[in-house]
Structures are given as C-alpha cells and as structure tokens.
Design a protein that fits this description.
The chain is an alpha/beta fold and 165 residues long. The chain contains three helices and eight strands; from the N terminus they run E-E-E-H-H-H-E-E-E-E-E. The structure holds zinc ion (ZN).
Length: 165
C-alpha cells in the first residue's frame, strides 16, 4: 500500500481542539485546520522549547521534514490570529507514541499518557531521576526497524541508529 509520507510520532493529543474568535458570527467564520502532527511540532519546538534536531527525533522525522511541518503549522496559527479565523486541530498523519519512563531509584517503569505537561515523577516512590525512552508505536511503520525492543537504552530516545528517510 503506497503512502505519501511515513507516520509521524506524536506524544500529545490536545484536549481542546477548537479555537473560535469571540464576536465573529458563525456565518462569517472561516476555519484553519491544523493537523495533530502540526500541533505536536509547535508543542515540541515552541512550547517545550526543544532544539529542532531533538524535535525531529521525537517525531521520527528528518530535520528537513520537521522544519517543513513546523513552518506550515506556524503559518496556519499566524493566519488564524491575524485574519481572525477559527482554528481546528484534527487529522494529520501520525501515530501516538507515549513516552515511557523508568525510575532510576526504584526501577519502576511506566508510560506517560502524553496528557501531562509538567515534569513527571515516579508514581511508586516519587523520585524524579527518570530515564525516558520511546517505545516504537503500534501501527504500520515504514522504513524503520522495530525489532530492537531491548535496544532502547542505547540512545536517549530509543533509537541509537537508523536515520529516518
Ligand atoms: Zn521510583
């Protein structure tokens, strides 16, 4: 099955998916659609404040691809702000890949739901000395080897080798 682009990994599905300007009648309201993958690009770069290279790794993308997604996403948000359009977050080509954490103190391991934005702490002992790594998300993967389940600790983000694209 051909697909135009490989899935992008996102850790965050926003709870609020519709932003409407106040005082604009529905009949005059225009909408900008932002993909979940585009929202994730803005979150990682502009909200979390990661370097672009780290963002690309988190989403399993080449840097150039991430840059393109981010530029397009920022443009859409800017359009909504300047032109007073509603913003809808939906769709996009993505797989949800929750971060997994391991506590260095008690070795407890758990998956982050992706819904909390604060610094996580160990639910068992409350420790904050955590390792985080990516579990390969469930779903069809393209051009990426997923048969290294124990190789995750070789790299901070669970992929010490194999560049996307
Ligand atoms: Zn712990």
């Amino acid at each position: 099955m051909p697909r135009p682009t490989k899935p992008r990994w996102v850790e965050f599905i926003p709870d609020v998916t519709y932003f409407k300007p106040a005082g604009v009648p529905m009949s005059e309201l225009e909408e900008v659609a932002l993909g979940v993958d585009e929202a994730e690009a803005i979150r990682l770069k502009d909200y979390v404040g990661l370097e672009q290279e780290a963002c690309a790794v988190r989403m399993n993308l080449a840097q150039s691809t991430f840059q393109r997604i981010l530029t397009g996403a920022r443009s859409k948000v800017a359009q909504a702000l300047v032109e007073g359009k509603a913003l809808r977050i939906e769709g996009g080509n993505y797989l949800v890949s929750p971060l997994t954490f391991e506590c260095r103190d008690c070795k407890h391991e758990w998956a982050n739901s992706g819904q909390s934005s604060g610094e996580p702490a160990c639910p068992e002992c409350g420790g904050t000395h955590l390792e985080s790594f990516r579990k390969v998300p469930v779903g069809e993967m393209h051009g990426y080897s997923s048969d290294r389940p124990r190789g995750r600790r070789h790299g901070r983000h669970g992929r010490g080798q194999g560049r996307p694209n």
